[in-house]
Fold this sequence. Notes:
Layout: E1 3-8, H1 12-23, E2 28-34, H2 37-47, E3 51-55, H3 63-73, E4 78-82, H4 86-98, E5 102-105, H5 108-111, H6 115-130, H7 133-146, H8 153-156, E6 174-179, H9 183-191, E7 202-206, H10 213-223, E8 227-230, E9 241-244, E10 249-256, E11 260-267, H11 278-288, E12 293-297, H12 306-314, E13 318-322, H13 332-338, E14 344-346, H14 348-355
Parallel strand pairs: 1-2, 1-3, 3-4, 4-5, 6-7, 6-12, 7-9, 8-9, 12-13, 13-14
Antiparallel strand pairs: 10-11
Helix pairs in contact: 2-3, 3-4, 4-10, 9-14, 11-12
Amino acid sequence: MTIRVLAVDDSRFxxxxxxxxxxxxxxxxxxxxxxxxxxxxxxxxxLLPDVITMDVDMPIMDGITAxxxxxxxxxxxxxxxxxxTQVGAKATLDALxxxxxxxxxxQLDDIDANREVAKTxxxxxxxxxxxxxxxxxxxxxxxxxSDYPARSQAxxxxxxxxxxxxxxxxxxxxxxxxxxxxxxxxIARVLSxxxxxxxxxxxxVQHMPHNFTKxxxxxxxxxxxxxxxxxxQGEILQPGIALLGPGGMQMHVKAMSPVGxxxxxxxxxxxxxxxxxxDVTFTSLAEIFTGRILVVVLTGMGAxxxxxxxxxxxxxxxVWAQDEASSTIYGMPRAIAEANIADKIYSLDDIxxxxxxxx
Length: 359
């Protein structure tokens, strides 16, 4: 089945380049181009594409505003093209909050030094984003249904009732949260529920480029009651502080007597797909940590984290996975579930409700 794409960028060169790269593969068809956000909103309504590639910085209407309008009127999977700068990082995070599914660097060289590899990665990412179309439409329909006036008899029956679940948290010495595609929004959702009284350290591993994680950590720090920051070389894990693994680096945790658990960072090595890699962090924890760890694997593509989670599980850690319905991409959580190591499989809202009880 052909994947129909709307390319949006104020650069005609970029739009033509997207068309050229995609249509090298007969699975793709660029059905239209738009040179600003206003055109994108209009053409999305007319063409009803399977995927939209969206630039951020455009005249007349920027990409973030366009994402909001498209998701409100004609929901569609959207892949953002981002400048690999701190300003670009902040704008991309805004676009993800507005409803975009994922992002890629705007320049092929920033995706991969090998041009052919970069083009393949771009096509694969658009395939992945397109696969979420049905879920996006279903969620949009559910939102519209829930907007039915609560005063009506039918609407009253649609109100959400918070589940009274026994999460079996017990005492935790360390909370570790891992995510990939869809993770920035998911992590913000659950982490913001942790109370200020929380006295356990938190580690965050999110697949993200090197110049994005600092902006993401700063955003989390604004949203959350506990302190959030990008992890630094030699930093000691502290109660009530969430440390985010820096993009482009691998984050290990080492036991350093007498100071406690310490962050050790190293550059990505040849052959390593992800940086930060979840398995790297999980495996380092499994090698040195004997306390009570809760590992939570959220939305993401692929299976990063499964091998490390198996090791942690063998050493007594509790492992939770996000469920399929609430995941943007049910890849990493599926890998945990299919490995039969998930103690619990919860929706994102259930995980957030559980985190309210962590002290």
